[in-house]
Design a protein that fits this description.
Chain lengths: 329, 497
């Protein structure tokens, strides 16, 4: 074999080492990064590895983590859901209003979940039947739902929620906050959904090639309704957890969550082109971003600098992905 | 090009290939997929860098490191997937990147229009320079690309499978254009799977196999059989010879199907164990008719009977459940989920069969995929391999596997051999043979007449949305078919339905 000696092949070495990212080790890399963060922080900030701080970290990440899982399903289907933040706010306010008006806890939660899912299905109707691009449809919903929740809450905090409901976010199970276990349940169910169910296969197929999926007899309408309903449902769960954690209905709840959720999914390897992404990746992506923020705070790093770091992390994740793909293409 | 070598990690794609093209010469380049044709051209066009060897233009050795450099040396390529900015006008595409400016510093639209029209007229093309490229047919887009190359005073134009999407008429047009280019002393490299074309237009032909040069010869001193033997080591006579079983019962009956403005009053029958050819020019409505039967588009009238029972199929899902498999014309955009694995693609139409209560039976998913990978001889290192990374022929087999595994019994092949090499073609014909032996009914749409004539038991000829003739195998006659396909019906010989 002759040895190529062009400048292109010299650049190929680091790229070749990145290629294994596409052979199933992507999550391994993310775990590695997370471990490095933990080890460095354990040494640099003595308060990092305390039970108190870790349970605080988990409490913070669990809520956005649930939202990010819903977002991941949408992204795999080659869509995007910008309305998740408003959905968190909506369910937060709705569940608070229901409970302060005497609806018992369980029915209040169920009504909220159903209402949230219905809004998600409406997203699906706009996107599938109305052929509105997901970005626009959910941008509209983001604005409209925020307006709706301001209207029903009169833009005021809603206090006076029942004690057992508020206690939920405070209790620990096996030293871990209960919120974490809710996240864990969502994670496990979603992994099962994406890897073992027909619905999951259909989501990937539509995200990879919607026309091929349609011509293979896949029910596009049902699947897209399901995708956006699931995302809204996840946001509603997150909104209810948020209510319990902050003990109030807060009209601004969930603002900006859509971007944090997208960031977690993207860092976790989901492709905005659709057809690619894993739940585990998103979970790790959310943990990495949260750990970066938490550790930065403990070390007393300027929060603006932290923000820069998170921004660069998001771009770096996609950049690495692109470079390794270019190599394997 | 002298002694060009190129290797990719793990493979040596080119092992010392040499090729020379004279001004005013059409030089054919043939070989199976993976023989190294594309790699060679990409090196010439600056898309890849060469591992070793030299490239000389007009006697001077040159280095080509980028597509831009290739263009500045007067090299241009016309690919099968046309490379134009679809949302811009023809004129803008002509001047892409260097729009002429008027004295005021604004875009000089008048000049764009004039120059573009002149160049197009030089090649006898009547295309409005102001029209958006996406409104043109693929054939017209290709002509625009060629005209652009002419305008840029290219010394060498590479045609990579230029006729894949063209009708016979358009191919003739293309050849006229190429003859004009020859007179202008432009050198041409012509890559095609259709050897007939090589003999129709080329002066010399070079055969590549497995990255090696097999030989260059004058077209007048060789013939098709010899070329194919060089390319694949197999003779051409067995190409279309497939074993045909006895014709079975009627499986599909279509009466008076219509969908305006695409087609109307379409009636035909399909029997088990037969290949029904659909021939017509591109745009005649063949694909539309079959999409309608499958449920991808809605019909506006008419009757479809499957196995004697009247059915209404309004969605692909109903088509799939009714046992129809569609192998679409464009497998990349319509047939395959490219970023997903072979296993998922093979099972794509069957998840309702291998799921219970919404849960996929993952072990059946895997075993089905493995069994079809081996029975259809799909070359892939694992069933998890992304389909994107398979060769064209293997991708086509994955689409076939999708329908065979669904146990469809009516297969619609829409242009199954476009863009696949001779070897893969043979394998697709073998697949058709196998499907026939199992008593399936097959509809074969092809723009390539020798293929339809060679494979079909009966043929339906379509012209502008109407069936102009149904011919039995004994009536196959190239001239007659072409006349029916162009709507020219000689007196006394009215259209049969």
């Amino acid at each position: 074999m002759s040895v190529p000696k062009s400048n292109r092949s010299s650049a190929s070495m680091p790229l070749r080492t990145l290629k294994f990212l596409h052979t199933g080790f992507a999550e391994g890399i993310l775990i590695l990064i997370l471990l490095v963060f933990f080890v460095v922080l354990a040494f640099a900030a003595p308060s990092f590895l305390t039970l108190n701080n870790l349970s605080n970290l988990v409490r913070q990440v669990s809520i956005i983590g649930v939202v990010a899982i819903g977002m991941t399903i949408v992204i795999i289907s080659a869509g995007i859901d910008l309305s998740v933040g408003s959905m968190v706010g909506f369910s937060n306010v709705l569940v608070a209003i229901l409970m302060t008006h005497g609806v018992p806890i369980i029915p209040a939660i169920l009504i909220t979940l159903v209402a949230g899912s219905a809004l998600g299905i409406f997203n699906g109707v706009l996107i599938h039947d109305g052929r509105v691009p997901p970005f626009i449809a959910t941008l509209g919903m983001m604005t409209a739902v925020r307006g709706l929740l301001m209207l029903i809450s009169d833009a005021r905090m809603i206090a006076g929620l029942p004690r057992p409901f508020l206690n939920f976010a405070q209790i620990n199970i096996l030293w871990m906050p209960s919120l974490f276990f809710v996240w864990l349940v969502v994670i496990v169910l979603s992994i099962v959904m994406t890897t073992l169910t027909r619905f999951g296969r259909n989501v990937f197929a539509i995200g990879s090639n919607a026309e091929a999926a349609r011509l293979s007899g896949i029910n596009i309408r049902f699947t897209l309704y399901g995708v956006y309903a699931f995302s809204a449902l996840a946001s509603s769960v997150a909104g209810i957890l948020y209510t319990s954690r902050l003990a109030n209905g807060i009209p601004t709840a969930g603002e900006g969550y859509e971007l944090d959720a997208i960031a977690a999914a993207v860092v976790g390897g989901a492709s905005l082109m659709g057809g690619e992404g894993t739940i585990l990746g998103t979970v790790l992506g959310a943990l990495i971003i949260a750990t970066l923020r938490n550790g930065g705070n403990l070390l007393g790093i300027n929060p603006f600098i932290l923000q820069i770091a998170v921004g660069m992390l998001i771009v770096a994740a996609v950049l690495v992905d692109q470079l390794s793909k270019r190599k394997s293409a | 090009m002298r002694d060009i070598r190129k290797s990719f990690p793990g493979v040596q794609a080119l092992k010392g290939v040499s090729l020379d093209v004279k001004a005013g010469e059409v030089h054919g380049l043939v070989g199976e997929n993976g023989a190294g044709k594309s790699t060679l051209i990409k090196i010439l066009m600056g898309a890849y860098s060469k591992g070793a060897g030299t490239i000389s233009i007009e006697g001077k050795e040159v280095e080509i490191h980028s597509p831009l450099q290739a263009r500045s040396h007067g090299l241009m390529a016309v690919y099968q997937d046309v490379m134009l900015a679809r949302h811009l006008s023809v004129g803008e595409n002509f001047f892409l990147g260097k729009l002429p400016r008027s004295r005021l510093g604004l875009v000089d639209w008048k000049k764009i229009g004039e120059v573009t029209r002149e160049t197009l007229e030089e090649l006898d093309l009547s295309i409005d320079p102001r029209i958006l490229v996406r409104r043109l047919s693929p054939a017209q887009q290709e002509m625009v690309t060629i005209a652009k190359a002419v305008y840029q005073k290219s010394k060498l134009i590479v045609f990579d499978e230029p006729t894949a999407l063209l009708t016979n008429e358009q191919v003739a047009e293309l050849f006229t254009v190429i003859e004009k280019l020859k007179k202008k002393k432009v050198g041409i490299i012509y890559i095609s799977h259709r050897l007939e074309e090589i003999f129709a237009i080329c002066d010399r032909v070079t055969v590549l196999k497995d990255g090696e040069l097999v030989g260059t010869s004058r077209v007048s001193e060789t013939n098709q059989d010899a070329l194919i033997t060089k390319m694949v080591g197999r003779s051409v006579s067995e190409m279309y010879s497939i074993r045909r079983p006895e014709r079975g019962e009627k499986v599909l009956e279509v009466r008076g199907l219509k969908r305006e403005p695409h087609f109307r009053n379409v009636s035909f029958d399909l029997y088990r164990g037969e290949v029904l050819g659909f021939f017509g020019l591109v745009g005649a409505g063949r694909t539309e008719i079959l999409r309608c039967i499958f449920g991808a588009d809605r019909s506006e009238g008419g009757e479809v009977k499957l196995r004697g029972r009247r059915v209404t199929i309004h969605s692909p899902r109903q088509g799939v459940r009714a046992g129809i498999g569609l192998l679409p014309e464009n497998r990349k955009t319509e047939g395959l989920a490219m970023s997903l694995g072979v296993d998922i693609n093979i099972n794509l139409a069957s998840y309702d069969l291998i799921s219970r209560a919404g849960f996929v039976n993952v072990s059946r998913e895997g075993s089905r995929a493995r069994s079809f990978v081996s029975s259809l001889n799909i070359r892939t290192p694992s069933i998890k391999r992304k389909v994107r990374n398979l060769s064209g022929g293997n991708q086509q087999k994955v689409v076939v596997a999708k329908w065979v595994s669904r146990e469809s019994d009516i297969f619609i092949f829409d242009e199954p051999t476009v863009g696949v090499d001779v070897g893969a073609k043979l394998e697709i014909y073998k697949l058709i043979e196998m499907l026939l032996a199992k008593g399936n009914g097959i509809i074969l749409v092809s723009s390539y007449l020798p293929e339809v004539m060679g494979l079909a038991d009966r043929m339906l000829v379509v012209y502008e949305g109407a069936v102009t003739g149904t011919l039995g195998q004994s009536e196959f006659n190239e001239e007659k078919i072409l006349r029916l396909a162009s709507g020219i019906v000689s007196p006394g010989e009215g259209p049969k339905t």
